[in-house]
Amino acid sequence: MTDLSPSRLALVPFISVADMMRIVNAAGIPETIAAIADRIETDFRRWPDFDKTARIPSHSDDGVIELMPTSDGEFYGFKYVNGHPANMARGFQTVTAFGVLARVDNGYPVLISEMTVLTALRTAAMSVAAARHLAPKDARVMAVIGNGAQCEFQSLGFHHVLGIEEVRLYDVDRKATEKAARNLAGTGLRVVSCSSAEEAITGAQIVTTCTADKRYATILTDNMVGAGVHVNAIGGDSPGKTELHRDILMRSDIFVEYPPQTWIEGEIQQLDPDHPVTELWRVFRGDVPGRTGRDQITLFDSVGFATEDFSALRHIHEAALETGFYTDLDMVADPDDPRDLFGMLRRASDA
Amino acid sequence: MTDLSPSRLALVPFISVADMMRIVNAAGIPETIAAIADRIETDFRRWPDFDKTARIPSHSDDGVIELMPTSDGEFYGFKYVNGHPANMARGFQTVTAFGVLARVDNGYPVLISEMTVLTALRTAAMSVAAARHLAPKDARVMAVIGNGAQCEFQSLGFHHVLGIEEVRLYDVDRKATEKAARNLAGTGLRVVSCSSAEEAITGAQIVTTCTADKRYATILTDNMVGAGVHVNAIGGDSPGKTELHRDILMRSDIFVEYPPQTWIEGEIQQLDPDHPVTELWRVFRGDVPGRTGRDQITLFDSVGFATEDFSALRHIHEAALETGFYTDLDMVADPDDPRDLFGMLRRASDA
């Protein structure tokens, strides 16, 4: 009775940043992106199974803190994520995240995980999953505009899964491009550092935009996007933050994750609310086509949705249990008699 | 560069169940309830400072999982809590919880804490804070109907803060009453075990109801509540779950935490939506009176609100840092260059 060691029910596996890196490096970074892309696509195909809600934000002058919950009826998951554009100048990460998985049948958490690294992987995985259906089949060259934290994950994911051979990098900050080029050396990708967005998109069949400015920006102007290109727009992901000129949207077939959220956060916040968009889960199921012609401009207006984090957490949960790269947290009070929380507390004092 | 030990920014203090029990036992259970009651009342007095939202539920056949976020502009906090009535029969806790505090200015989490024990304490603390303004000043006898996990915390809180000398216990399950009576022995309270709710309320100036049935129940009928009594109704806290006969509500002055939530979850879900209720933060501020007369029946329709968890987390965060009863979790990825998440991951592999 006075044994203070937690019962098995009290313990929740925890994936630290160090353990996340061990799990991912053990499997390989591109391999992990590919595995999460498969999991995302499988979960999107059973879209109606998920309890979907737009993220719950708490805004302040400095940024936003959000909770992103979802459930498939068997597991419940949520992500905590912040977005603070001024953080980088103060030596903090712009975005940090962690997540939780729980069992729906009894409500007990079964995983707490860092998600800053995992979110970077799942964002690339979602792009890859979408591009499998939207990019030209013979695409070998991708431009990446914005060479911050997401750039290398996108590049490696597209290299590994879609066979992209060349990435053309551009960032307003030359140092960011140098960092990305250095990191991508030796990965098998041909890396071309460019001095303008126009130069970067030359010859690219896929254009990925992943800049970080929290304001209306125009990273791509209308004349920069030619026929047959797939635009993978990552950075426009909150109210007031867009990357593409409206005219590009007007010429594109637009594909989105969850329309109620994308209308608030995505590039399409620039459009009239009756503008047609296609939900990716319908494409993944084969109910509606993805790319239909050589000259079509396809646009994935990516904002990131809770089910993608759920898919990533499910994958990493299994990988953690397989590899043993996790620790147990004594997080769920588990008295011998569930009604006797007080007695448990008193006995801990006596012990 | 290849140092894998996490930076100071990466570390988030974690209060395990064992550490929570150490913190609470070091200060004393009733003393902790009193301290949280003071913190709740102070925070309620600055009610307009808080970002308030009704809890975000995910319902299933077995129960509910909820997120309860709030912010005061300096700190952001949320609680994860489940409610699964069938859990007890399966050897699990009906309610488990954990919570997080974060800094609003940079979005970094600063605390993860178990909250199953802490929620029991803050629920009693909220009842005590309300009763300070609503119960008869000379109240010395309290009935507690429902002798589950919350019973002893309520009893001790009211003993310590309001000077209650006698608790009269009743539960449909005799074993629950025996458990509570055993736990309360030697605390200075006179404990009377009763064989009916009618017997329990005899001579009581305060009636606390904290039963657990997830259905419309009538723990108190109209004739059981006499003039001058304060009813502290804890158990009616979700749609379809009430404890009091509607006629009692009609004769009472009703005090609530956050009306948009209480109308959905509280006893007042039985009333017409234009029925008058008083917000407790206005009472705590002195803007409107609490108890105004000897014969008045006051009712605290308690459902539990996010700011109360916030207040409890703020108290326990300070207590953890003071006592050292916590461990650090490596939870926030913190690369030397915030844009170089990929490089951090690669270097971890090289190390």
From TrEMBL, chains A, B:
Family annotation (InterPro entries): NAD(P)-bd_dom_sf, ODC_Mu_crystall, ODC_N
Superkingdom per UniProt: Bacteria
PANTHER family in UniProt: KETIMINE REDUCTASE MU-CRYSTALLIN (PTHR13812:SF19)
Name used for this protein in its record: Ornithine cyclodeaminase
Organism: Jannaschia seosinensis
